[in-house]
RNA sequence: GCUCAUAUAGCUCAGCGGUAGAGCACUUGCUUGGUAAGUAAGAGGUCACCGGUUCAAGUCCGGUUAUGAGCUCCA
């Protein structure tokens, strides 16, 4: 038979040859590192027979695919077997690979905790050392069921029963059928190929990811070809933990949470400085881009939420308030607003709107509350009380495209000012259950798509992922360590203007419902500040820093001059503090550096005599002595650069 | 909401049935110093909350609340 290799060269092999035979034929080195093959793009076991003429590539242990197969074998063959050895009554569910590692879900009577991981790892190493061979059997459905029924592996039975496959169920055996697993494969030909690994955590996970099902125990691990790669990975996790905004928030005295208000931020002065600066920055951008800022109530009667549809669809996430009847003779049920949109429609609805008024762009730093499930909260990233940089554009169908373009340009400018130069766009199109005619969906989807195309941005289409009320764009930015955060959103809505009777008078004097576009750039201030803190490891750019300058005296004799310098800074709107404590300058430098203050101005006798300051910037060990007025000028310029 | 874990001084943590500990921070004294920790002393705690076991409970057990890691969710 004729085998085509990835470089398009041809090789002739006798019929019935396996992937291993092919690898051997190409070279002994390749045969040694080969772990699987890919036949016409489909991964197969190394010792599988190649059925006939085909394009075949050899997967080696050092390739990305090879590592993934190694992780797969490690979880499905080694971790699973170790669990069965240590906890014979446990039942295996599934064990897939994930980014950088793998997990296995098991049902078990004995609680497995992180303390048990060491024990399980030791058992895994024992299994690997035993150098078990892995052999594969193909069986039909009834035989496969028999095997797992006898072993009381109920989850495997479910998987087999739910499969529409008739036969060719792949059973992988180790050591004379002592251990068997059902698997799509491929697996390593031998456990010798397994490199360095570590079990990392234990948690619960629902069977099939459905909260209605059993909670299984999930054991996570990471695996690499060698110790070096493993350690690099573990170190990178540690580095990411160092920039955790919750830790930095405490160290930098930015905010706190407490039991009485879970998921609600207590902003401290320094944290609020970041918040205020960011908000002013956004406000300034909105003012320059045709938005009108408004402000609407936070506590609103349920009638409005019934009209908007939130009472039906979103109620479990809403904080409901009732007035105490004992104290007031009025009984009303109110809700804290979870979104600003219904209130914005109320503002729009005051007065008669003409097509000549459109587009109308309302912006609100809208304080919203959502009752998030307790287990979902996470520092600033997921909270119950937050403020959006929200906005709603009321426009005609024909204006959607131009509004999209204006929005994307504004978003891109803001992200880049904040230090994020890379973002992805995702276009989500009509879902199965939706409102609005196909005609308007066609129009809105193509308006969004055309706008992106004309601006030459790459984008992905997520078919069917739009909201029931209209198509949307999501904007995902990439941070300094490569993590992605979905922040911006732009959603067309054909539903709400209709439900809440928003109208405008058209050219012919007839009434129409405007299209309403929900849009945000940061998402929520809380979450975005969390992202900024982690992106910058707390070392915010000068204009955003909570404390921008600390003036530190070296000897008490210069305190007056230090005070004078600080006063000049404050007069110019620089967030600056003064440190006149009876401490050595190195002590002061250490403390303010660890608080990530961007600029420390050290003042000693020389500076006082020469009317200069000694500038020390965070991240640098150099100092620069500069004439006071020149230093002030530099600092003021740096502060205003984004406004 | 679910699973598992955690909750001790302002912070980071030790203590795991028998009189509450350390380092840092804080206060005071000495020290006036040149760019990431001078020095000595002092003060600081219903050991998250409620209940149980015990002669005796931060310590063991149950519940509550919050937090963490995941899962699920995010019209």
The named CATH superfamily of the largest domain? Bira Bifunctional Protein, Domain 2
Which ranges are low-confidence, i.e. pLDDT below 50, for 5 or more consecutive residues? none
CATH class of the largest domain: Alpha Beta
**If classified by CATH, what would the architecture of the largest domain be?**
2-Layer Sandwich
Terminal CA distance: 70 Å
- Estimate the mean pLDDT confidence: 93
Q: How large is the share of residues in beta strands?
A: 25-35%
CATH topology of the largest domain: BirA Bifunctional Protein, domain 2
Number of helices: 20
Question: How many domains make up the coordinates?
Answer: 4
Number of strands: 33
Helix content: 25-40%
Radius of gyration, Cα only, in angstroms? 31 Å
Task: Please describe the biggest sheet, giving its number of strands, its sense, and whether it closes into a barrel.
Answer: 8 strands, mixed
Oligomeric state: single chain
Strand numbers in spatial order across the main sheet: 16-20-21-28-25-24-22-23
Structural class: alpha+beta
Tell me the overall shape. Answer: globular
